[in-house]
Design a protein that fits this description.
heterodimer, A: 179 residues, mainly alpha, 6 helices, globular, B: 197 residues, alpha/beta, Glutaredoxin, five-stranded mixed sheet, two-stranded antiparallel sheet, 7 strands
Chain lengths: 179, 197
């Protein structure tokens, strides 16, 4: 049983994540198709269907917000995240550490890394938590604040963490810490 | 509104601001990382390759001591060759940085100043700038061997006589980035970034 405010907060933040990921891919589909092909986990013809992925992400993001479609969106979203995690893990296993992850926009070229696998597993876990039954407490103004501000804070912290794990930490490691 | 609700609202506002500040700081750290790249590893021309042995030469300084440049040293110390000239204004502004770096890095590195041209003019330069105690070599051959195209120019040789970094040094930052380049084992700016990303 989860509180409806926490449920709505989780759903809102995850919907924002899926929608923004879809927009990043739609901004330059060609680039995303290339990244998908470079993963070398799907047959060659599948890359022509690259536009399906952002479409699916967009649908998942929108469906998370409505009560009726939420369980389906959770399952589809978790499946998508686990598929990404598997694709990244397979390529890391192959030793291809310089492979572009294809998660950001076209001007961003980020290589895949082990933390991305863990991130996706965690996000899939959060989606699974949304499937728990919600308690039927009446909502008021304070809940609106919790959901709105909570979603914004979650988005900001998510961006900070991505930046930190992606750009700052590897370079700090390269510098070898304080002398 | 109860005190608890007010407190909750205020806390949310503060947390939001805090999260925005964290994001801004993280981005700033990213920018800083780009700025502290080893800029002195900027290479001007090809020919001499960083990571390969430097040209071997025997040169004499103004006091008559001979120095073997580019050979493996038994004492495990590195050599910084710094090409300067009495007629180069940037060299004069760089000299205090050279002196302090020589002091700071004396544990692992020797500095040799190199120039070419009229010897009496060089002696005057050494006296005027207070460079006594630093070996000062006057040799056109050394400059040619290390392909010095403009001044002030530096080349860092490690204890094996292997060239670790070379390039134009216009500032203290450039000079120190030569040491960073050796410490990190990167040949150039491009290599540093391709290794990090």
């Amino acid at each position: 049983m989860i509180d409806p405010a926490i449920g709505a907060l989780l759903a809102g933040a995850l919907a924002l994540l899926f929608v923004s990921a879809a927009f990043h891919k739609l901004r330059n589909l060609q680039h995303f198709a290339q990244a998908l092909r470079a993963y070398r986990v799907l047959p060659e013809w599948a890359a022509a269907m690259a536009w399906l992925v952002p479409l699916l992400e967009l649908t998942v993001g929108a469906s998370l917000l409505a009560r009726g479609s939420r369980p389906g969106a959770c399952a589809a979203g978790a499946a998508l995240l686990l598929a990404y995690a598997a694709a990244i893990a397979i390529n890391l296993q192959r030793g291809r550490r310089d492979l572009a992850c294809g998660c950001g926009g076209p001007d961003e070229r980020r290589p895949i890394a082990p933390w991305m696998v863990w991130r996706n597993l965690l996000l899939a876990g959060l989606l699974a938590a949304l499937l728990l039954p919600w308690s039927g407490r009446p909502m008021n103004g304070a809940d609106a604040l919790t959901i709105g501000a909570g979603t914004a804070v979650a988005a900001l912290l998510y961006m900070s963490l991505e930046q930190l794990l992606d750009r700052v930490a590897p370079r700090t490691a390269l510098l070898g810490g304080p002398r | 509104m109860t005190a608890l609700a007010v407190s909750n609202a205020v806390l949310w506002v503060l947390v939001l601001v805090l999260a925005a500040v964290v994001l801004a700081l993280v981005r700033q750290v990213g920018v800083l990382h780009e700025r502290i790249a080893p800029a002195g590893a900027l290479m001007l021309n090809r020919g001499l390759t960083v990571g390969e042995p430097g040209p071997v030469l025997e040169v004499a300084d103004l006091e008559g001591h001979t120095h073997q440049v580019g050979v493996a040293r038994g004492d495990g110390r590195s050599t910084l060759l710094l090409f300067v000239s009495p007629t180069c204004p940037v060299c004069k502004t760089l000299l205090p940085a050279i002196k302090s770096s020589r002091k700071d890095e004396r544990g692992w590195m020797d500095v040799i100043l190199a120039s070419d041209g009229d010897t009496s003019e060089q002696r005057e330069f050494v006296r005027a700038q207070g460079l006594d105690g630093i070996p000062y070599v006057v040799s056109a051959a050394l400059g040619l061997a290390y392909q010095v195209s403009r001044l002030p120019f530096a080349a860092l040789l490690d204890e094996q006589g292997i060239l670790r970094a070379r390039g134009l040094v216009n500032s203290r930052e450039h000079l120190e980035s030569l040491f960073e380049a050796k410490r990190l084992g990167v040949a150039s700016l491009q290599e540093y970034f391709s290794g990090a990303v």
